[in-house]
Write a structure and sequence with these properties.
Blueprint: E1 13-14, E2 20-22, E3 38-40, E4 50-61, E5 70-77, E6 94-102, E7 107-114, E8 117-126, E9 132-142, E10 147-152, E11 157-162, E12 172-177, E13 183-189
Antiparallel strand pairs: 1-2, 2-13, 3-12, 4-9, 4-13, 5-6, 5-12, 6-7, 7-8, 9-10, 10-11
């Protein structure tokens, strides 16, 4: 799998081989996404089948975030749901996990929610200068059962199962990164 360089938002960059996403500026293009600060995969996933992919996520805090600032989003969505909003989470035909500064924890936390119901919460790293996190997330989309499973690949542990994923049309893995003045985000597709 590769990220789509041509559709990536102007404030992010994609490596020449399409494997690495970073939340820093790149060369602008008129065909790029304008609201969604990320990109989608160059190829969609369709019914029938089971599709597994893994993304290594690196986070480095440059300076502490305030309020509930977004850090990243990893997810799957129909192409029609991508680009209309800052995030795909919470919109029809989109499922994702968000990393954001969580005021209650004063940390960068992972949140997986669906239909306004929190499915999973975990502290990823402190909200302090030079705090870092490296993690490989695995994703399994089972189009026949309508499930999107999220794994911690290193621990070989299932983190969460999102049910009732509508796989009747192509779904695209998505990635977005936010607040580059505060946090560096790098997402890399891992070789299978």
């Amino acid at each position: 799998m590769t990220f789509d360089r041509d559709k990536a938002h102007k404030d992010v960059s994609i490596s020449a081989d399409g494997k690495v996403f970073m939340n820093i500026s790149d060369v602008p293009s008129s065909s790029r996404l304008h609201k969604y600060k990320g990109t989608l995969c160059s190829k969609g996933i369709c019914y029938p089948g089971r599709y597994y992919y893994a993304i290594k996520l690196d986070i480095k805090v440059i300076k502490p975030l305030d309020k509930s600032n977004l850090v990243y989003e990893l997810g799957i969505a129909r192409e029609s749901a991508i680009g209309k909003h800052l995030v795909v989470e919470g919109y029809k035909f989109a499922w994702s996990m968000i990393g954001a500064h969580h005021v209650d924890c004063d940390a960068i936390c992972l949140h997986i929610a669906h239909n306004n119901h929190l499915l999973y919460h975990e502290v990823l790293t402190k909200n302090g200068t030079r705090s870092t996190m490296e993690r490989v997330f695995g994703f399994l989309l089972d189009t026949e059962f309508g499930q999107w499973k999220v794994f911690d690949q290193k621990l070989e542990k299932e983190i969460c199962v999102v049910e009732f994923v509508d796989c009747s049309e192509f779904l695209y893995p998505v990635v977005a990164g936010y607040n580059p003045n505060y946090v560096e985000v790098t997402a890399t597709f891992m070789d299978e």
